[in-house]
Structure formats: C-alpha cells, structure tokens
Amino acid sequence: MTAPDLSTAYDAMATRYAEDIPDRYHSSPLNHAMIPVFAELIRAAGDGLVADVGCGPGHVTAHLHTLGVNAFGVDLSPEMIALARAAHPKLRFEVGSMDALTADDASLAGILANYSIIHTPPGHLPVTLTEFHRVLAPGGYLLLGFQAYDGPDELAEPFDHLVSLAYRYSPDRLAGLLHTAGLTEVARLVISPAEDPRRGFPQAYLLTRRPAN
Amino acid sequence: MTAPDLSTAYDAMATRYAEDIPDRYHSSPLNHAMIPVFAELIRAAGDGLVADVGCGPGHVTAHLHTLGVNAFGVDLSPEMIALARAAHPKLRFEVGSMDALTADDASLAGILANYSIIHTPPGHLPVTLTEFHRVLAPGGYLLLGFQAYDGPDELAEPFDHLVSLAYRYSPDRLAGLLHTAGLTEVARLVISPAEDPRRGFPQAYLLTRRPAN
Predict the structure, then answer these.
(1) How many CB atoms lie within 10 A of CB A95?
(2) pLDDT tier at A162 (50, 70, 90 boundaries)?
(3) Which chain A residues touch B29 with a CB distance below 8 Å?
(4) Rounded to 10 degrees, what is the CA torsion of B94, B97, B102, B105?
(5) Whole-angstrom Cα distance, residue B149 to residue A194?
(6) Distance between CA atoms of A125 and B76, rounded to whole angstroms?
(7) Which of A54, A151, A172, B78 is deepest in the core (most CB within 10 A)?
C-alpha cells in the first residue's frame, strides 16, 4: 500500500482508533512501560524536543507531556491529526511522513515510533531508520515499539491487519539494522505473547541512542 | 560463602551500601525501569502484599510504597535491616533468608528480588525459585533483576564482587529454570553493557507470574 493509500485507510479508521487505542495503552502496564523511562532519559539529557512519529490520536504525545517532555506528534493521516488536536488542543500535531520529517538535521532529543513501522516493508526500513538518525541530535534517543517475531532467521513476517498488510519484526535483526543506521542499543523490552490477547504475538521495545559526539 | 558468612560480610559493608546504592538506583532511569510496571501490575491484580527479598537498605521497598504497593523488606544482614528501619521507620523490615521466607504458602501478590540472587550458586538456584513459587499466590508476580551473562550455553558465569563471589546469569537459561519452577515469563528487559559503567555487564529483569488457578 502506498503512503497516500495508507493515509486514506487510517482516515477511515480514525474515529474507531481514537476510541479504543488510548484506553488500551493506558490500561496495560506493559504497553506503556518504556515511556516513563524514555521520558526520564530525555529530561536527564537536557530537555530537548521529541517527535512522536505515527502518533495516531496523540495519546502517547500527551503522556510524554505529562511526564515533562516537550513532545509533538506527526501522522500520515489528516483525520487522525484532527482527532489528536481536538483531544489535546494545547499540543502540536502535524500531518507528515516519518520518512521525510520536517525537523532539521540533529535537532531532536528523541523520537518515539510506537508501533509506527507496522506497515513499513522490511526492504524500506533502512530508509526510515536513516531519516530517524538524521534528525536525532548526538546523544538523542530513539524508542521503537513493534510487534515482534521470534523466528530464527527472518527480519520480518507479514501478517493481516485491519488497515493494511502489516509486519512484525525480529528484535535481533532489527537491532542489527539500527546499528547499521548508526544507532547504539541501550535496552530492549520483550513482552510475552500472552500479554497480547488479540493476536498472541510478542511485542518489543528497542531503545537506541545516537552516540554523543 | 555460607549464609552466615554472607550476612557478616554485608553487615560490614552496610553503611557504605546505604550511602551509595539508593542514589545509584534513583539516578539511573533504566535501573528502576521495571519497578513502576511491577507496581501497576500488583495494584491491578488486587493490592496484595509484596516481599522485597534481599532488600538491603530498603530503598526499593520504599519506592514500591510510594507507588501504592504494600511491600515489606527481608535481608540476611541484620545491619542492613537496621539501616533500612532507620531510613524508613514506617515500613516493615525483617532479617531472614530468601530460601526460607516466613510467608505462608500462596500468600504474596508479588516478590521482588533486585540483584538478590547475585551470590546464589547456579546449582542452588532451583531451591530459591521453588521457595518463591511456594509463597506466591496464584496470579502473583516475581520480578528478578540480575547481572546478565550473554554467553551461548552456560547458565551462569562467576565474577569477583566486593562482598563475596558473585554470579551473572543467562536470561534465557534463567527463564528456563523459572519455567521449571512453575513460573511463566511475562516480560524481560535487557539493558546494554554500556549502561553499567563499573563492570560493563549487561543487566536484565525477568518478570514472571505464577499462573492463576
């Protein structure tokens, strides 16, 4: 699916997403486990700007704000951005692609991509990660949350998803791609399949850092 | 080293530990990352009693309390327990062994063992894990934090430690022992070696659960 098609597909689903996803995020301790850690690290590194890419209805952008982080949201879907603005009128949200962020080189203290690479085909992933690296300041953090795949060799496994074809990624192989993109692993959280009652997939968070100069 | 010797060794180190360890715990976001998640899960499961085994000067017991968890501390070292009581006079601390807890069968909502198996020889670990399983209520959580070993085959690697011979454990192999003891993995966090400036070891947290009846 092309980016415009994906945007249209998420526009059609936006209201339903905005009703369900924030509740699920807040009610599952493991699904938001890494956000306070990420926020603490950003604050300790000097309080810079953070992009929540693929922000959807903006619930995690708002959570980061309550944790003292100067975060803004970006999403491909104009409808999703309209809902995010309506729910959080004081925060900044913009329509955009995570492959072509408007941020200047080395300008961000952090990037959160919370299940945002779910529709990114494996072959395209290096483009996305290179863009993340471009906008991160030295010492900046990238937190990547994703459906995980625990097969032995493959980078990714496709699966059916309500909106569009989706991929789950091998944490080890994805960590390798992040390393190639210039980002160093800081920590990883892997959540067991039983915690995902819908699909029974493991979930993972990879926290990486652009090395300080 | 026997349990009485270990107790004596920690007694001698207690004041120094009480000065350093709580600060290090609070100042490192990754070193306390799993505690709020553990606390949320305990509260969501109904607010039962939690044992912080190997509690040292009681800083994590106290953190759990500020997060709304009814936690008490247990430590082999009477001197450490005296310092914990002095620092947190409203909380409960008791001298005891994590291999012979005073709690009744199936009476605890959770156990935290934060770097407490560091001196447990690999061959003895099943005894300790069986004791943890005994006191956990069905549905109860065990959170185990430890220095990690990423070698391919071994359960553990010994290393020198200020107080006594220590061990770092393979997360995979330790997860296997936990499974054998009747505890199901819920999530694991692995922290990269660079985050441990002293020794350069990875660190890990295994969160497991005794299945609900």
Answers:
(1) 14
(2) confident
(3) 37, 40-41, 44
(4) 140
(5) 26
(6) 51
(7) A54
Provide CB contacts within 8 A for B125, sequence distance 6+: B117, B155, B174, B177
Give the bridge partners for A167, in sequence order. A158
Both tokens assigned to B32: 């306390």
Q: How many whole angstroms separate alpha carbon A41 and alpha carbon A161?
A: 33
Residue ranges per domain, chain B?
3-209
Give the C-alpha separation, B212 to A177, whole Å.
39
Continuous segment of H or E residues that includes residue A20:
helix A3-27
* pLDDT exceeds 90 at position A140: yes
What average pLDDT does the segment A53-70 reach?
A: 98
Contact flag B194-A188 (C-beta cutoff 8 Å): no
Identify the pLDDT of residue B26.
Answer: 92
Domain spanning A3-209 has what CATH number?
Answer: 3.40.50.150
Which residues in chain A are closer than 8 Å to B212, comparing Cβ atoms? none
Residue ranges of E strands in chain B: 49-53, 70-75, 93-95, 108-114, 136-147, 156-159, 166-169, 184-191, 203-209
- Identify the segments of chain B with pLDDT beneath 70: 1, 195-198
Sign of CA dihedral A122, A126, A127, A133: positive
Q: What are phi and psi of A188, to 5 degrees?
A: -140, 140
Q: B105 at the A interface (CB within 8 A)?
A: no
Q: What is the average pLDDT score of chain A? A: 94
Residue located via tokens 């951005």: A81
> For residue B199, what pLDDT is reported?
72
Contacts of B191 in chain A (CB under 8 A): 186-187
- Note whether B41 contacts A: Cβ–Cβ < 8 A: yes
**Is residue B135 a contact partner of residue B101, using CB atoms and an 8 Å limit?**
yes
Using CA atoms, how far apart are residues B144 and A4, in angstroms rounded to an integer?
A: 46
CA-nearest of A110, A180, A177, A171 to A143 is A110
How big is the CA angle at A160 (ends A157 and A166), to the nearest 5 degrees? 55
Helix (H), strand (E) at residue B82: helix B78-87
pTM above threshold 0.90: yes
